[in-house]
Amino acid sequence: MDIQDFVENSIGHWRSQRSAHHLAFGHFEAVQSEIDITSLSTEATEVIELCKIYNIDPQTVASPFRMSWEGQSDWEDSEAIKGNCVLIPVPDPVQPRRGKLLRERGYAEEVAAIGEYHFTDDGTFVLITAYDHVAAEEKIWFVNPNVRCRVSLIKTSAGTGLVTASFSSEIRQKSQESDM
């Protein structure tokens, strides 16, 4: 699998169930959410702008996309969790199963971020992102075309301590139009 295949397989509307263990707080959290992943043109304004931030030539990117989410956590009386983010893969020109992932907004910290990705031999997408205060490691794999799993680890910035561990199962929802 390469990044173009991964993004193409990810496009759609997903229903997600996430279980997170926040070790720093000694708390378990369950989150249910809806995730929309849509492709973007390499010429889209938001793609060009994010490439400028990182001094990346937009001609070197592959399969940019937007991810939007809205969900609900069982952690106390938390408000709905929602947001969206532009993500831009930049494949390594020599090793196409590796590259960088530009993020308008990070997973572990609400700042622009750049991570390093690669694919394992079994097709698992692995993304490692260093932030100011923590580091995130995410792994995503497809069980079948409409089911994927995601494991996320948030570690201390030195990588010596684990702050949060989560597992998500995500099921692609069929569009109403395809049911007719």
From TrEMBL:
Superkingdom of source: Bacteria
EC numbers, comma separated: 4.-.-.-
Name under which the protein is recorded: Chromophore lyase CpcS/CpeS
Gene3D superfamilies: 2.40.128.20
Role summary: Covalently attaches a chromophore to Cys residue(s) of phycobiliproteins.
UniProt lineage: Bacteria, Bacillati, Cyanobacteriota, Cyanophyceae, Pseudanabaenales
InterPro entries: Calycin, CpcS/CpeS
Family: Belongs to the CpcS/CpeS biliprotein lyase family.
Organism: Pseudanabaena galeata UHCC 0370
GO molecular function, one term: lyase activity
Signal sequence extent: none
Keyword check for Lyase: yes
Alphabetical UniProt keywords: Lyase
